[in-house]
Every structure is written in structure tokens, then in C-alpha cells.
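Researcher: I'm comparing several assemblies side by side, and this is the next one on my list. It has 241 residues spread over two chains. Same procedure as the others: predict the full complex and return the structure.
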Amino acid sequence: MANVQTPDALLVKRYVAGDEVALASLIDRHQSKIYGFIYSKVSDRDITDDIFQDTFIKVIKTLKSGSYNEEGKFLPWVMRIAHNLIVDHFRRGKKMPMSRETEEFSIFSVISDSCPNIESRMITAQVEQDLKKLIEELPDDQKEVLLMRIYQDLSFKEISELTGVSINTALGRMRYALMNLRKVIDKHQIILTN
Amino acid sequence: MAKIYSKKSLATKPMQPKKETISFLLNYSKALTYIKVKGLKFESIAN
């Protein structure tokens, strides 16, 4: 005896009338075709599962709400829903491109954090502390000019007015201050780098 | 006689959705009802 399959239209009718088993039969009958169709477009198992689920949610809603008209056939209608959802998926992706982390591609190679990390912040703090100690060792007149120039950002003209010396003297003190600092750094082999 | 080196069918198994997806859809369908009140349709999902 030939195995006669219940037509889709009849299963749809039964489902609309409240027979939940009819839906299970419809899904079971067409799932491979619909799933394969979605996968052929998106090439990702997880996204395919999502779109497949959304497709049938739409099918269920349309059938239950009584908005389905039987003009067309069931499978092409479901395929059309899936197709529209695939288009929506790619439209969303265009607006917000998504990158997945893989073994060959690290997301952090594209997204970088410009803020210094804790290590470089600690190094900077240490360098500044060491430099302050070295400046304290300078003769007072040189230290005064260096602090005014570097930390208070004053011009040599302003420094000469405030300290009561000529601009040339202020320049000379600055020069000696830097030379002395370099000497101490070389002598003690201090590394002041960030 | 020709040797048959491969007994396995070359046709790949058709792709199937996850069992969880199917189970979710069937449960969703059971939970969903539409209530009609004065020409308006209301969607209701039973927990």
C-alpha cells in the first residue's frame, strides 16, 4: 500500500483548528529544506538557528491569528518569510558590522585602548618621583630656574625678572642644571624612560 | 570485479535545526493564543 502523505494545506487547516501535532508534522516535513536554504545564505549555524526560529514564530503567529490565506502553497510561503528575514539580517549587519574572535583574528588587533595601562602608569609615576629627587640635589640657583621653566612654564624673560638676574644668566643656569642632571643620571646609571 | 573502497554514501546528511529550537517552537505554539474582542486581536502567551 502506498504511503499517502497528508497534504500541507490539510495540516495547516488542522493546526488553525487547534491541532498542535499538525504543526510538528509541518516542521518535521520541511525543516531540512528551510534550514538548508537559510544556511546556504548565512553560512553560520547559530545565525541559521536564529533565523529558522524567527521564521516559524512568524508562521505560528500568522496561522494562529487567522491572517493566513491559502492562495499560495505552504512551503514557498515559509521560504519567502525566511528570505525576508535573511535580508533583514544582512541589512542589520551592514549598519553594525560584526566581527567574531577566531584563532587567526583577534578582535583586539582592531580595537585598541589608547589609555595607558596600569604598568605604564606606574612607570611614569616612578620616573617622575626619581626625577624630583635628582632635581632636589641641584644647586639652589639652578634648581630654581629649572623648576620655573619646566614645571611653571615661565619664559626666560619672566624668570630673569622674578629672580633678578639677566636672561643670559638664567639661560646659563638652566644649561648647567640640565648638564648636572645628565651627569648624575650617567654616573648612577639611572634609567628614566617610560 | 571492481573493488569498492568506499561503502559510505557520498551524500551529506541534510542539515537540521537544533532539537531545542524545535522544542521551543512547539512550546511557543502551545502557549500562544489570540483573543478577539470587538474586532481587535490580542496576543496572549501562557507561561
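Model: For your comparison table: The two ends of chain B are 64 Å apart (CA to CA).
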